[in-house]
Amino acid sequence: MKQRLLWLIIFTTQVLAEKPSVIIVGAGVSGISAAVKLFENGIANLKIFEAEDRIGGRIHTVKFGDNFIDLGAQYCHGENVVYDTVKDLDLLEHAQLFSTPKMYYSNGSHLDNQLTQDLQKVVSSYDHDITRSKELSLGDAFLKKYNSTILEKYKNDPENFKLASDGLTFAHSTILMHEGAFHWSRPASGRHYKAVKGDQMMVWKQRGYDMILDVLLKRYPDPSLKIPIEEKLFLNKRVTKITWTGDKASVKLSDGTSHEADHVIFTPSVGVLTHDDLFEPVVPPRKQQAIKSMGFDGIIKLILYFPEKWWHDSDSTFFFLWDRKDLEGITKEFNEGPSKDGISWVSNLVALVKVPSNPHVLIGWVSGGLIPEMEKMSLDVVKKGSMFVIRKFLGRDYNVTEPGEVLWSDWHNNPNFRGTYSYEKNGYFEEEVHYQDHLAEPLTQGTTPVVLFAGEATHPTHYSTVHGAIESGRREADRIIALYP
Ligand SMILES: Cc1cc2nc3c(=O)[nH]c(=O)nc-3n(C[C@H](O)[C@H](O)[C@H](O)COP(=O)(O)OP(=O)(O)OC[C@H]3O[C@@H](n4cnc5c(N)ncnc54)[C@H](O)[C@@H]3O)c2cc1C
Prior knowledge:
- This protein has helices at residues 2-16, 29-40, 81-86, 114-124, 138-153, 158-179, 211-216, 270-275, 285-292, 324-328, 330-333, 371-374, 379-394, 435-440, 466-481; strands at residues 22-25, 46-49, 61-64, 67-70, 92-94, 102-105, 110-111, 202-204, 233-234, 239-243, 249-253, 258-261, 263-266, 279-280, 294-295, 300-305, 317-321, 339-340, 343-344, 349-354, 361-366, 406-408, 423-424, 443-445, 448-453.
- The protein is α/β, with parallel strands linked by helices.
- Belongs to the flavin monoamine oxidase family.
- Its EC number is 1.4.3.-.
């Protein structure tokens, strides 16, 4: 009751003070964060248009197995705004995952020697101590480092040198998984990303990453305080055109309706921005250049439920390292699904990771340039191919059982995302230029911002993350709030 009264006061204050109307395009975490901030500051004349049938965007937690799993964002990286928002609610814990990974070779042997430790170290810190320049891709810069460290160290040790050379394919796949790129020649060697201090691998104790949406919307821990966003939220509403020539912006939807507002906050991904012709007139050259400077490809998450668990409780992560010869002959053993240069898609399954809150589930991480084709495979082929790899690598040491339900994400082929997370493209990097800031610049009439831009890719240092997305949504809400003191 008290809460309803509060929202009534906000609403009345808004009418009296002639607060503006705002349309938010997209109900991902940046759009939700912007909406909450506007609402809490008395700007309640809001409409949020979301193309999907749910909120959350690239945060997508679904019921699976004995609990929940995340098809999108999963880890909280450091003591960032997500951490700050929930730190008193006991919702996050450290994921004991990568501290004791096991590396297996495609002949089925467990690799555990100085070389594999060196390899894992150099791969996990792949963007440290590399030469950064506009002309050098991340892949080229990493290769230089790999040659001068690992290959140099083992050059007089034929057996380990062979493994070290095979390690390059593993390094490539792992780096693509982190970057969300299709090839390591695509990201720049330089970057503006800054890690936030603290534990980089925290996971959610209850449910999954969508807990943050409940906390932001004040549905948790006390639902009676929830922000009444439902009345402002329109699901399955795809925006097809935003016209920004007049004092107000006009937003057209795929259902044929048009809606006007004083301000529009646009939050869809760089993939959507690159692919869709959404603005009338087109955005200025500076913003077009910013969009071009950002890469947005994708990774796939494979989710497997095993009714009968076959791994040990002490296991956390399995890494797969292919012998070059096995890789080249692989399509003779498994030939379903796409391949490139004779190498099957199955070689792109780089790691298998336990889910602390879901004990019968393993998540596979899949990267590489075949993703657009891989996403289209039937679940039957996905299951057969994944089990082929798992048995090939682990079948000697484990009695691998048959999985039940399987999930396979499809972020790249979904027109509302067209990929997973943004990266800075090779050929564009300059230390002093933050293209993310250029992307964030509003489209104005006179000095009034009419269309504003939020979303992870507009964050100058925390792009590609949930915390970057939240900060970007709040930043654009603040830009509007400042106009109506
Ligand atoms: C597989 C995967 C793993 C990830 N792992 C992590 C992780 O561990 N930690 C981390 O911090 N981050 C991770 N991320 C990144 C993180 O999820 C994103 O950075 C963040 O969620 C982006 O939020 P956003 O609001 O900027 O964009 P989005 O979530 O993309 O929100 C934009 C919304 O706009 C909607 N939309 C698009 N086009 C239209 C249109 N024309 N009309 C109306 N609506 C439209 C979309 O449906 C979407 O809901 C991961 C992402 C993926 C996909």
